[in-house]
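hey can u check if this looks right to u? its 85 residues, i copy pasted from the old doc so theres a chance i mangled smth
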Amino acid sequence: MRRECLDFMIPLGEKHLRRILAEWVTHYNQGRPHLSLGPGIPEPAAVFLPLQGHDRHTFSQDCKVTARAVLGGLHHEYRWERIAA
């Protein structure tokens, strides 16, 4: 936690520190891959993988990758989303 989060952020008080740690713990358990899980996520959300055919490098044209900033952009989580028609 210290190396991935607190070495890059300066908490301004106890309330701020608690908010930083709560967001980091959520990211750690739900969005960050873990090599010991090969590389998996401890509490994965529903995975949407828009594969087209059998080629793993070709994806549906109605999908895009979206990024969500975590801890003000210190980390990012990436997900597939369908493009609205």
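DSSP finds two helices and two strands in the chain.
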